[in-house]
Amino acid sequence: MTRVIGIDLGGTAIKLGLFASDGSCDRSLTLPTPQPATPTAVLEAMVQAIAPLVSASANIKAIGVGLPGPTDATGRVSKVAINLSNWQNVPLADWLEEKTGLPAILANDANCAALGESWQGAGRCVDNLIMLTLGTGVGGAVILEGQLFVGPHGAAGELGLITLNPDGPECNSGNRGSLEQYASVRAIRRTTGKEPRELIDLAKAGDKKALEFWQNYGRLLGIGLTSSIYILTPELIIIGGGISAAIEFFFT
């Protein structure tokens, strides 16, 4: 059976999987994202991680990479990733092809997540949905009438960069007070000094401050989504990313 390698590049971790044509995952692994996450450091980490996947299957046809930011229209160049170091106009597809000998293509990670959910996941039964990924940053994607909406420049749907508070913390995008500055892993670290996993464990143990934190987190997340809901009137909102593990505490 034909297989492809899928890679999710995040600010904290790089996740790789070996996938069959029906979407099933035969093998997966996770490694920490190099810090600082420069293009050359990330490329080296990816190439080293790809090697055991290639050795595990002789029928790999291509590599697909989901990136935390927009790509060019051809899926060859990562235009910008605001939460990675020195990441602008990176020809990552060309680099991967040169190093591995396999065809490669790039796309925005939240867009990949939305397409995956629409194909095989929670979005299979609807034509209009919003996808929000809560991780190192906050990514967003929109599917309208069954089609991924990317806009004329391929960068539409960045819901995490919508302004929540014009006087709030500055975002790497140049915006101030974006949803990402309140709902991302980095925002949680900045405001609490703790990792999301710690706050989840504390909430499970009944810690009052942790429970209050997640309740306020959910309130801010809901406010951040309100404008998108009024404009797009989606049939479904899908929440993903590592922070979604706390959903029982902020969706109550």
Keywords:
252 residues, alpha/beta, Nucleotidyltransferase, domain 5, 2 domains, five-stranded mixed β-sheet, four-stranded mixed β-sheet, 8 helices, 11 strands, 35% helix
Task: Describe this protein's structure.
- The chain folds into 2 domains: 3-110, Nucleotidyltransferase, domain 5 (2-Layer Sandwich), CATH 3.30.420; 125-250, Nucleotidyltransferase, domain 5, CATH 3.30.420.
- Helices cover 35% and strands 25% of the residues.
- It has 8 helices and 11 strands.
- It has a 5-stranded mixed β-sheet with strand order 3-2-1-4-7.
- Helix 6 packs across helix 7 (208-232).
- The longest helix has 25 residues, at 208-232.
Helices and strands in order:
Layout: E1 3-9, E2 13-20, E3 25-32, H1 39-56, E4 60-67, E5 78-80, E6 88-90, H2 92-100, E7 104-108, H3 109-120, E8 129-134, E9 138-144, E10 147-148, H4 180-183, H5 185-192, H6 196-204, H7 208-232, E11 236-240, H8 247-250
Helix pairs in contact: 1-2, 6-7
| Quaternary structure classification | single chain
The helix/strand class is: alpha/beta
Residue share in helix:
25-40%
Low-confidence stretches: none
Instruction: Give me the CATH architecture of the largest domain, please.
Output: 2-Layer Sandwich
Give the total of domains. Answer: 2
Reported by name, the CATH topology of the largest domain is: Nucleotidyltransferase, domain 5
Overall geometric form: globular
In N-to-C order, the SSE pattern is: EEEHEEEHEHEEEHHHHEH
Biggest β-sheet description? 5 strands, mixed
Count of discrete alpha- or pi-helical segments spanning 4 or more residues: 8
Instruction: Give the integer mean of the pLDDT values.
Output: 94
The level 1 CATH classification of the largest domain is: Alpha Beta
